[in-house]
Write a structure and sequence with these properties.
The structure is a single chain. This protein is mostly helical. The protein has one domain. Helix content is 79%, strand content 0%. Helix 4 runs antiparallel to helix 10 and helix 6 packs antiparallel against helix 12. The chain is globular and about 70 Å long.
């Protein structure tokens, strides 16, 4: 296998230089690919061909639908109802509002699929509410941003669709099912951390648990939660594809937001659709340019070289799994989520499968690693959003988040070394 060291240096060197210079990631990916192709003497028509090929995928059509569904449900009066439902479930505990925050994120994540949307929507309500009840602002913000990562694991998540497309041959339905238990495990881990801190700081309890109140809130929130059932069980049951389920979910969320909860009028719908176009344009540009980058990686045999280099350090599968997590965590500090999935998956997935990690399990690992990256400077988008919503200095928020980083790392290690946490539900329901 001939190795074009110069072209590899141009591709990866210029890419990381532009990333550290804070170029928009799509520009960094595209320009480094163009320079690499010029170095190899290839025609630049390859760039257009690969960009079109990257977004010419039926399964990727689910991405704009899921984004639209999340925007409609997120601005359609859903947040308050899910907060009330979470309060009925866990508000009675010590540090009850922190627990409500975490459980509400689990519910809301199943609708929006976005950590940023979760932080902006729930955070704007819950952080002031927690501060008014005697919680520290930095603690309230830390709980909000870390619990928002549950939404990346709980389906429907458009990032999981991107991973399934990038990995090739992965069942979106199985991947959706695989996220439920890890998402719940992350929630429990964060709740334990919150409880310990709440006891230490003597944060208040909420009202006593009431089964009647829980059933009442569940009946009100049913219409919001039903959207998730339509998507997941429709796909797993083979009633329709992920793309078809996403389209149906958009229509359903429109009906719920406008006619049932009445949180949106038709002017609001058009405004939401405009926001969706903004978000979608960013995602599709990233997918298109990353496909060119992936083409260059393949032409230069970078995945095989990376696999040989990593496995050359050690053949111990436990250490290799740990190294994969470390690589993804480091990438999460300097890159956003979608580019990591698009660029790192073709390189790291073959290594993961070679040590016995199922591609679906690895997908959950990738998503959670990227979620942790969203909370770490210098490119932690969710960290910045949480800091802005709470009007707290980022340094204080990072310091308050440190105990929750530990909770998330413990969850990541459990998912890495206990495959059935991810694979148990898909296996049980015959999705694999």
């Amino acid at each position: 296998m001939a190795v074009n060291t110069g072209a590899i240096a141009v591709l990866l060197g210029t890419f990381f230089i532009m990333v550290f210079l804070r170029f928009p990631i799509a520009y960094a990916v595209a320009l480094s690919s163009v320079l690499c192709l010029l170095k190899m003497g290839n025609s630049l028509s390859v760039v257009c061909q690969q960009m079109v090929r990257g977004i010419s995928s039926f399964s990727l059509m689910a991405v704009p639908f899921f984004i639209t569904m999340g925007c409609l449900m997120g601005t359609g009066g859903i947040s308050e109802k899910l907060i009330a439902l979470a309060n009925s479930c866990v508000g009675w505990m010590r540090g009850g509002m922190a627990m409500v925050n975490i459980v509400a994120s689990y519910f809301f994540g199943g609708i929006s699929g976005s950590a940023s949307a979760d932080t902006a929507s729930l955070g704007s309500i819950l952080i002031p509410m927690m501060v008014d009840q005697g919680y520290d602002a930095d603690f309230s913000t830390a709980v909000t941003i870390t619990s928002s990562c549950e939404g990346l694991l709980v389906p429907p998540s458009h990032n999981m669709v991107i991973y399934a497309t990038t990995a090739g041959g992965i069942s979106v339905g199985a991947l959706f099912l695989a996220g439920y238990i890890p998402g719940a495990l992350l929630a429990v881990s964060l709740m334990i951390g919150s409880y310990i801190i709440s006891v230490k700081r003597n944060y208040p309890k909420g009202e006593k648990f009431s089964l009647k109140g829980l059933l009442k809130q569940l009946s009100v929130s049913f219409w919001a939660l039903a959207a998730v059932l339509i998507v997941v069980f429709g796909v797993v049951g083979g009633v329709f594809t992920a793309t078809e389920s996403a389209a149906i979910a958009v229509i359903y969320s429109l009906i719920v937001s406008v006619f049932i909860y009445k949180g949106l009028d038709w002017k609001g719908v058009w405004r939401v659709l405009g926001d969706c176009v903004d978000t979608l344009s960013i995602v599709l540009i990233l997918i298109a340019t990353s496909n060119v980058f992936g083409y260059c990686l393949t032409m230069l045999h970078v995945p095989e070289l990376a696999a040989s280099a990593i496995t050359g350090i050690t053949t111990n599968p436990y250490l290799l799994a740990l190294m994969l997590n470390l690589i993804l965590l480091v990438l999460g500090c300097i890159m956003d989520m979608a580019p990591i999935i698009l660029i790192a998956t073709p390189i790291l997935l073959p290594i993961a499968t070679s040590i016995g990690i199922n591609p679906i399990q690895f997908g959950i690992m990738v998503v959670l690693n990227c979620g942790i990256g969203l909370l770490t400077p210098p490119v932690g988008a969710v960290l910045f959003i949480g800091s802005a919503v709470a009007k707290e200095p980022m340094e204080r928020v990072v310091k308050a988040t440190l105990p929750f980083y530990i909770c998330m790392i413990i969850t990541l290690l459990l998912i890495t070394y206990i495959p059935m946490i991810s694979l148990g539900l898909p296996t049980l329901l015959g999705a694999m």
